Amino acid sequence: MWFFQTMTGRWLISGGLLAGWYAWSPFFLPSRYPVESQSGTTFMPSMTQWTTWLVGNDRTSREFHAWLAAAHPGLMHTYAAMVVLAAAGPFLPGVVRKISDSAAKSRREAEERKRTATSSRPARASSSTATAEPENHTEGATEEKSEKELPKPPPIMELRVANGVPVPNVFGPDALLERWANSTDAERETPAFTAIIKSRTKNHYAMPPVDPKEIEKLKESFPNFVDVLDFIAGYCAVGKISETGIMALQPLLLVGPPGVGKTELIYSLAEMLGVPAEVVGLGGNSGGAMVLGGMNSGWKGSSPGRVASVLAKGIANPLFLLDELDKVPTSNTNVSNLTDYLLGALEKTSARKMMDEFLGPTVLFDATRVMWVASANEATKIPEPLLTRFQIFHVDNIPPEKMPPVIRNIAKKLLKELGVTSSIDVDMTNGAIDRLAVMTPREIKRIVKNVVLAAVRESGKNGMTKTTVLIDAESVDKQVNHPAVNGGA
After folding, report:
1. What are the structural domains of the chain?
2. What is the Cα–Cα distance from 141 to 204, expressed in whole angstroms?
3. Calpha distance 136→224 (Å, rounded)
4. 480 and 438 Cβ atoms separated by less than 8 Å
5. Range name among 81-95, 124-138, 176-190, 342-356 with the lowest pLDDT average
């Protein structure tokens, strides 16, 4: 047996098979079949002649081969098969062994999946953000899984990014599949969890920086953010010449009164950079880190956090706005957990292996490319360790003399949000601009929106023709005297 396992032995055995076929094949030819010569006579060849013609390559042998193929095709096919077998014979054991090993590996993996499906799921440690025990309906969270096969994972999402730079999947496709295999029925019914599993593409994408001149264009709409925009433009310039070619940004903290345009700036910046924008309102938030880092899956209504959910869209460098960071309730025991989470997320080293409480420790994702911007009315109310992670900018209200272009841009963006840019124009009198110039961008947006909605309603417009809505001082005063709920700005 050892002789057959060596390559030399295989060649000798194969050669012997071929030689034996040459030697013994004449015995398979019916001796009663005569051979017709070129002169037209027939004769009965001897065994020596049969063998000579079969292995020869002269003219007579070739004629014999042609006659044999016509008279006895089955024998010639067998002869050709023996030649192929003899030539490939030395390699067949290796091929067979590879096929056998692959089949054995598949069987082992199938058995392992079956054992995992029928065993109880290990209970993960309770979330550090939890302040109460999970409800009674979850006492069977560690019950044995059904012996039936787990449902197939949801299909992989189609990710098409025109200008993105390919980066490794921030979650890891294998880790996501393992997490799905260990999931419960309740977890698989959670939309955010399913969306994350769908994001198991080989690559995600990080958006490249834009031309710094594009950032400069935002100064007309946000003249009170000039220093902030110059800072961001500097990062765009550096990103253009960096080896990675990816847009990156140091965490920013915008400190200023409400309504000066912080949220609008983030949305405009994200649109220009081509990245998702996620605004997380922290004012009055009692959930601590759970809003960002998820809630343990043993809790009723639990779900992955906002960070993992946004990264599941396939863009590795989204833009997050932590709105009202100074308004997090200080009496809540979860505040320290939120601070700890942010300290980890804002440091590149720890952000490389972030954990979502819902996904558990088997899925550690890379959040190093996430761009963070926080807003606050008073920086003194933010914990000092957290404050040191940000580049701080103080933002004031826009001076009245710089408001006219800002007001027109607010009206233009509002029409775009309403989806009526093709059917409605807005025109403002100087008196209306003077009235609006002393207001915050948030108040301006609210008033312009109410005037446009009222004008369209009263005109009975059917969308067939384009209408111009005139905003004058009287219409502005009318809205000022009718308070409305402020929109985000």
Report:
1. 7-91 (no CATH), 205-394 (3.40.50.300), 400-480 (1.10.8.60)
2. 32
3. 53
4. no
5. 124-138
Residue type at 348 in one-letter notation: K
End-to-end CA distance of the chain: 82
pLDDT digits (tens, 9 = 90+) for 465-478: 678 888 888 888 88
CA 187 to chain centre: 20
Kindly report the pTM of this predicted structure: 0.64
Instruction: List beta partners, residue 354.
Output: 365
What are the residues facing 281 on neighbouring strands?
Answer: 323
CB 276 within 8 A of CB 270: yes
What tokens does 210 get?
């834009």
In the block, tokens 């009975």 appear at 460
Q: How far is CA 247 from each of CA 129, 186, 225, 265, 313, rounded to the nearest angstrom?
A: 32, 38, 20, 17, 17
Q: How far is residue 219's CA from residue 457's CA, in Å, rounded to a whole number?
A: 34
Task: Give the DSSP H/E element, type plus range, for residue 344.
Answer: helix 335-346
Spatial separation of the C-alpha atoms in residues 248 and 206, rounded to whole Å = 9
Question: Over the chain, what is the mean pLDDT?
Answer: 79
Q: What is the pLDDT of residues 381-416, one digit of tens each?
A: 999 999 999 999 999 988 888 899 989 988 888 888
Q: Say if CB 307 and CB 367 are below 8 A apart.
A: yes
